[in-house]
Specification:
With about 230 residues, the protein is an alpha/beta fold. The protein contains 7 helices and 10 strands. It has a 6-stranded mixed sheet with strand order 6-7-8-3-9-10. A 4-stranded antiparallel sheet has the order 2-1-4-5, with helices on one face.
């Protein structure tokens, strides 16, 4: 049986605030299978974003472990974790995190530039550019390659972010409130695009949301309350 693309085992996350310990995650278990869309649903403060950061290796768990394809990851070196994060996982955030001075195409290419050495990127730049252009065309921005974020609508910026997340052909995309900053019509379009890409590419999605309607379109809903999985 194939190992899940992403696993959390008994994950706890505690932050120190002054003299107090704030326990945000309290023993979370989660498995995400290839091509599966999992919605993390819960109220503000439930621990959804914290769990996403731990799953994406942006923040280590206090105790417990995260596994990629069945392999524990937090014992790896910083460089090994960075490479694994880039190759295995893509990120889409509510506020896009695009560089305002760069064009849509440059923003998509930025992830490749930051993870490859100068020599390696220079040798693969034509292929990388071809792949980035293809992705931007796929998300409906083939005529906006040279536009900067300030020249794009919110929905178009999120499409750039989705294309950027897909450039490394990850096995799972972690999306933190990906439609939370969009109006309902645009949010529906972006969500439909994400579901289409999931079906086409077989990539798994973990969607953080507090929207019951959005969560209802996922293959599975995981509900968090006070840092605990409750359903």
């Amino acid at each position: 049986m194939t190992a899940p693309v992403l696993t959390a085992r008994a994950v706890h996350k505690t932050y120190r605030m002054g003299r107090r310990d704030i326990e945000v995650l309290r023993g979370v278990d989660l498995e995400v299978q290839r091509g599966e869309i999992t919605a993390l649903l819960g109220a503000s403060g439930a621990g959804k974003s914290t769990l996403l950061h731990v799953l994406g290796l942006l923040d280590p768990p206090t105790t417990g472990e995260v596994l990629y394809d069945g392999r524990p990851v937090h014992g790896l070196s910083i460089r090994e974790r960075a490479r694994l994060r880039h190759d295995h996982t893509g990120f889409v955030f509510q506020f896009y995190h695009l560089i305002p001075e760069l064009t849509a195409l440059q923003n998509v290419l930025l992830a490749r530039m930051m993870t490859d050495s100068v020599t390696r990127y220079w040798g693969r730049r034509k292929d990388a550019k071809k792949a980035a252009v293809s992705l931007l065309e796929r998300v409906g921005l083939g005529d906006r390659l040279k536009h900067r974020p300030t020249e794009l609508s919110g929905g178009e910026r999120q499409r750039v972010a989705i294309a950027r997340a897909l450039l490394a052909e990850p096995r799972v995309i972690l999306a933190d409130e990906p439609t939370g900053n969009l109006d309902s019509g645009t949010a529906s379009e972006v969500l439909e695009l994400m579901f289409e890409l999931q079906r086409e590419r077989g990539v798994a999605f973990v969607l953080v949301t507090h929207d019951e309607q959005l969560a209802g379109r996922a293959n599975r809903i995981v509900r968090l309350k006070d840092g605990v999985v409750v359903g």
